[in-house]
What does this fold into?
Amino acid sequence: MIYLFSITYIAFLYLNYVDAKTTYFVVNIIGSRGEKNPIAKYLINKFGAKKGIILIKSVIIIISPLIFMAYVESPIAISLTLLLLCLAFFFVVLNNIKVCKKINPNYKYLKGVIK
It folds into this structure.
């Protein structure tokens, strides 16, 4: 079970990173109307694109210890929860890439994401 947890946790972090990069690209060009999450939209409007995205993504850093504590209590449940979160973020990232491509057909979504 530790392997599933490790892989899903790393994937969760990576998908959040890609979400932040693609969201920043979109918001930088078309403004906060490109963000559908109302909390993220509020933070972007209040603090600007970079700071707003950093604030919303910093929640993951704050809850990370809770994820590990939950794993100790129930490894199967937290691993499956992370798997579902990864699936959800995968579709969020796909949508972000679609929007990026619509804004700029030459957008290379892996440039700067995978080095």
In short: The helical segments are 2-30, 38-47, 49-73, 75-103. Residues 2-30 form the longest helix (29 residues). The chain has one domain: 2-103.
